Amino acid sequence: MGISELSGGDTTQPTITATPEASVPRASLLATFAAAIFVSAALLFMVQPMFTKMVLPRFGGAPSVWSVAIVFFQAALLAGYAYAHLLTRYVLVRHESVRGAVGIHLAVMLVACFALPLSIAAGWGQPPDAGEAFWLIGLFTASIGLPFFALAANSPLLQAWFARTDHPAAKDPYFLYAASNVGSFLALVSYPVAVEPFVRLGDQTRFWSIGFYVLIALIAGCGVLLWRSPANVAAAVDDETADAPPSWRDAAFWMAQAAVPSALLVAVTAHISTDVAAVPLLWVAPLALYLLTFVIVFARRPIIPHRLVVALQPLFVILLVGVIIVDPLKSVFGTFLGSWTGWLFDPTKTIVRLVSVHVLVFFVCALMCHGELARSRPAPKYLTAFYLWMSAGGVIGGIAAALLAPHVFTWVAEYPILIALAVLCRPGRLIPDDPRWRYPLFGLLAVAAAFLIVCTFYPEMLYPEVFTVTGFNRIVVALLLVTVLFWRAALPFAAIVAVILFVNHGVLEQAATVSVRSFFEDGGYRLLQHGTTLHGGQRIRDADGQPVTGRPEMLLYYYDGSAIAQTFDAVRSTIDGPIRYAVIGLGTGTLACRAEPEDTVHYYEIDPAIIRLARDPSIFTFLSECRPNTPVILGDARLTLAEAPDGVYDLIIVDAFTSDAVPVHLLTREAMAIYLSKLSPHGIVAMHVSNRHLELASVVAGIAAANGAITRVNDGADPDETYQPYKYAGTVAAVARREEDFGPLALSRDWELKEPDPGQWAWTDDYSDIVGALMRQLRGD
Predict the structure, then answer these.
(1) Count of beta carbons in the 10 Å neighbourhood of residue 516
(2) What is the pTM of this model?
(3) In the CATH scheme, what is the code of domain 563-779?
(4) From CA 717, how far away is CA 576, in angstroms rounded?
(5) Which of 26, 78, 187, 762 could bond to 42 as cystine, CB 3.0-4.6 Å?
(6) What is the mean pLDDT of each run of 10 residues along the chain (781 residues)?
(7) Residue ranges per domain, the chain?
C-alpha cells in the first residue's frame, strides 16, 4: 500500500487551515509519519521470530518457551499502548506540551539503544526446576524488553501526533494503522523466505539495530513536523466537545471484538498444525492474514466492504463445518456426494486445499470482527484509549487460547468454541425477530446443550448402545441443514455450529489430539498419535481377538529389519560386549525392547504426559515388559544430554518429533557436536528424519560434515501393509566419525553415502533454512 493510497484523496473530511508560514508540505508530512510507522511495525514483528530463535537452542525447545514468548510479546505490546495513551493524555493534551511528549519518547528510544545489538542478557544461566515461566519472562524482559516496549508504543503514539497536525487527513488518522500492519505483514512474510535462509542470526541482529537507529531519526522528524504545525491545530482537535468519551460498554465491545480473533488465531494454528497438517512455520499464513485484516478495515477505502463480509461469514462457517464433518456427509448422501467432494476433501491429495479452507474461514471471521472495531472507532482524540482496549482484548484472547485452553481441554476444543464466538460477534440481533420462534428456540437450545454435554463428556452413554454411527451422522447433517433457517440470528446459528463440531469430535472421531489422550485403537492395535503423525503402536489382540501378552512386538519404524534396527546390529558388530544407548524421544518406549540383558538404556523426553503414558502398563507395555526401570530424563535433550559424561553412549537415537516436525534446534551443527561428544570412539548417531514436508537428510549430512563426521542414509520403501500392518521404513540418517564405524551399514546398498551439498550452508543455532528444506521435498531431491 503506497502513500498515495493511504492518503486516499477523501475530500469529505473537513480541512484545518493554517497560515502558510507555519504549514508543513503535506506530502513530506504524510510520508514521514507513514514511513516511521511502517519501519516500527516491521522491526516489531521481525524481532519476535528472531529473538525466539536465539533463545531456543540455549534454553530448550519446550512448548513453554513458545507459550511464554507469546505471553511476553502480547503483554509488552499492551504496556507500550498504555504508555502511548498516558503520554498523549497527560503530556500532549493536558499540559499541551509537544516538546515534552516528543522529548520523552525520543529519550525512551535512545535508552533502548543500550540493549542493542539484541542478545540474551548476561547473568541468565540455566532455567530453574520450578517457576520456569516467570524466569523466562524475566529473561525476555531483561534482554529485549525495553526495545520492544518502545517499538510497541509507536503506532498509536505517532497516529495521535499526526492527528494534531494540519494535514487534511488528520481528522481521521486511523488509516495509518493500515501502514503499521503493512509493515508487520511484510516483515512476517519475508522472515522465513528472504531473511532466515540468507542471513545468519548475528547479522540479522546487526541489521535490525541499524533499522532501529533509522527509526529514531524518523521519529525525530515526526516530532519536528508536529512542533512546526500550527499551534491552534492541537487545540482544535482537543476542544471538540461534540464527541462523547468512550463508555465502559464501548471498551468491553472493543475488547471482545479483539479477543475473539486473537484467540482464534492461536486456535486455528493449533488445529491445522495437529489435526490437518503439521507443516513447520504454518503459523505464518494465519498470522499474516490476521495482520492483513487490519490493513483492509482501517484503510480509507477498504477493498472489501464490511457489509459483504458480514453477509458472507455464515456461508464460510457452513463450508468449514462441512469440511470437518465430510464423513457424515458422505455416509448420509452416499457415494455420489463422496466422489463429487473428493477433489476437496481427500487429505492425502489436497492437503493445501483443506488448510486453505480453515485459513480462509479464519480470515473472514477476523475481517468481520476487526471490521466492527474499525466501524466503532472513536474520535481521534480518544485514539490511544481505543488501541489500549483493543490491545487488552488481544492479550486476553491470546492467553486464553495459548496458555489456559491446553490445560482445560484434552483436544483443540477452543477451535469450535471460538468459531461459535466469532458468529456471536456478528452485528444485528442474537435471536430471530419473530417472537413465535423464541420459546421453541430456547427449548431446542436447552436440548442441544444437554446433548452436547453428554456427547462431549459421556459419549459411551449414547454410542453404540443408543445410536449407531449412521444415526449420529444423520443428526449432524440435519443440524447442518437447520442452520439455513437461522443463519441471520447469531445465537441459534452459533449454538448449532458448536453442537455439530463437538458431537463430531466427541462421538465420531474417538481420538484426542494432545499428548495426554493421543492414543486410540484400530482393530487389534493401540496407537500413539500426535497431530497427524503416529509415534508408536502396539498389537494388543491377535487375529482371533484374544489379548496379546508377554514381550510386545515392535512396530512402526522399529520392527526387526527396519533401518533403526539395523543401526543396533551395526553397533553390536563393532562393540565387543553390551552396549550403552540413548534415545531422544520416548514415544511408547518401543526401543527399550531392543536392549539385551546387559545393555544400558537411557531415554530423554520433554513431555511429562508422554512419560506417564509410556509407563502405564494398561496402555503400552514396552517399558513394563522389557525394561521397567529404564531411566527417563525429563527435559529438552539439548540441555539434559549435554550434562551426560562424554563418550558414554555407543548409540544415540534422535527420534524427537512434534507431530511431523523435528525440532530445529536438534538439527544444528552445535547439536551434532553434543551428540558426537557423548559418543564412544566407534559409536553411531542415528537420526530419524522421516517427514512429509521437509527433506532433512541433507541437513544431517551438512551438520555432520561440519563436525568432521560422515553420513549414510536409508530411505527404503515401506513393507507391504497387507501382511505387515503398521510397519514403515522411514528415513534414517546414520552419522559416524569414520567409515569403518558403520560396520555392515557401509556394505549395504540400502545405506547410501550422503555428501553435504556444497551450495547449502550447514544449519547452526544462528542459521536454518526451513523453506529450502520444503522446496527440496517438493522437488523430490
Answers:
(1) 15
(2) 0.72
(3) 3.40.50.150
(4) 32
(5) 187
(6) 38 38 68 94 89 74 62 87 92 82 94 92 72 79 93 93 87 87 87 83 92 96 85 47 77 94 86 55 76 88 89 88 65 46 45 77 94 90 90 89 76 84 83 63 68 60 51 65 67 79 62 38 66 71 79 87 92 90 91 92 87 87 91 87 93 76 80 95 92 85 95 83 77 94 91 89 85 77 64
(7) 23-121+129-237, 246-426, 435-505, 563-779
